[in-house]
Design brief:
single chain, 2 domains, 20 strands, Rieske Iron-sulfur Protein, four-stranded antiparallel sheet, Naphthalene 1,2-dioxygenase Alpha Subunit, Chain A, domain 1
């Protein structure tokens, strides 16, 4: 659906629930086979590990027996073993062994999140089933790009607030001194927002996926660049941010990638003093905020759910 009209801002914070989006849990290179990693997520805690075939698994970190943190346990024969009483859980979350020989209770399970691996990140979806595919880069797949994924660090905001920069064309001029040209329209769907804009200096293809990921393809005389900005909701008002940079796979890609990374870091660092101190409010919007207002409404209307097993 194309949306060009100004929108009335309706965003209200809901406590205890979070957008049903794909969230980056860790850099792929951080999660080795045979190891458990504990990650704070959606106001609770999860474990991230790989099964025997290297596929990522994300599950609730708290044992259903007495609540011990499973990230303090071990992977034994491909199963998560609780550090307290050595109950063991399979990749589907079901308890498969109790050392005392007791009958396994029906409720002896840990919640298992839909999980994916893409763009050098391990992602988990907040829900029992994913409502949409994991985030992607506009106009390219992984095989076509040379890319790097990086952890930027913690932020005292919800992830969606950082993503709002993707449609805040005023701030590109005011904060970053970029000659940005707003698109004529944005395409707003149930789980994403997409647009194209261009001026005499560059063209931009922007894509918001879910409520916490913005990716863009920039094309200019100096070449093409891809960027992805995303964050994991740690708790209400707290997030862990990541970014991905990419260039077309061709001669000189490593040097061009270094330049794109430097530009991306400059943008993030310039945003940081504002985003790290902002006290978000509905505010008084103007006509130039029409796409920003539409984004806030999109977030307000987005499906929400509590953390699994939280």
């Amino acid at each position: 659906m194309l949306d060009t009209a100004p929108a009335t801002l309706r965003y209200e914070i809901q406590t205890g629930v979070f957008p049903q989006s794909w969230y980056p849990m860790a850099l792929s290179r951080e999660i080795a086979t045979g190891a458990l990693t504990g990650v704070d997520f959606l106001g609770t805690r999860v474990i991230v590990y790989r099964d025997s075939e290297g596929r990522p698994i994300v599950q609730s970190a708290y044992c259903p027996h007495l609540g011990a943190d499973l990230s303090q346990g071990q992977l034994v024969e491909g199963r998560v073993r609780c550090p307290f009483h050595h109950w063991s859980f399979g990749a589907d979350g079901h308890c498969v062994h109790i050392p005392t020989g007791d009958k396994i209770p029906p409720g002896a399970t840990v919640a298992t999140y839909p999980t994916a691996e893409a763009w050098g990140l391990i992602w988990a979806f907040n829900g029992t089933a994913a409502l949409f595919p994991p985030p992607r880069m506009p106009d390219a797949d992984e095989a076509a790009l040379v890319f790097e994924s990086h952890l930027y660090g913690p932020r005292p905001i919800d992830p969606w607030l950082g993503v709002s920069n993707g449609v805040d064309f005023q701030h590109l001029r005011a904060l970053h001194n970029i000659s940005a040209t707003p698109p004529e329209t944005v395409a707003v769907g149930p789980y994403g927002i997409e647009y194209r804009a261009e001026n005499q200096f560059y063209s931009q293809h922007g894509l918001i996926t879910g409520a916490n990921c913005f990716a863009q393809h920039l094309s200019a005389a100096s070449g093409d660049a891809w960027m992805m900005f995303t964050g994991r909701a740690v708790a209400r008002g707290r997030s862990m941010s990541y970014f991905v940079v990419g260039v077309a796979a061709s001669d000189g890609a490593e040097q061009r990638l270094d330049a794109v990374k430097a530009m991306t870091m400059r943008l993030i660092d310039e945003d940081a003093p504002v985003l790290n101190t902002i006290r978000f409010r509905k505010g008084t919007l103007v006509a130039s905020d029409r796409f920003l207002a539409r984004f806030f409404n999109y977030v307000a209307e987005f499906p929400n759910a509590p953390a699994l097993g939280g």
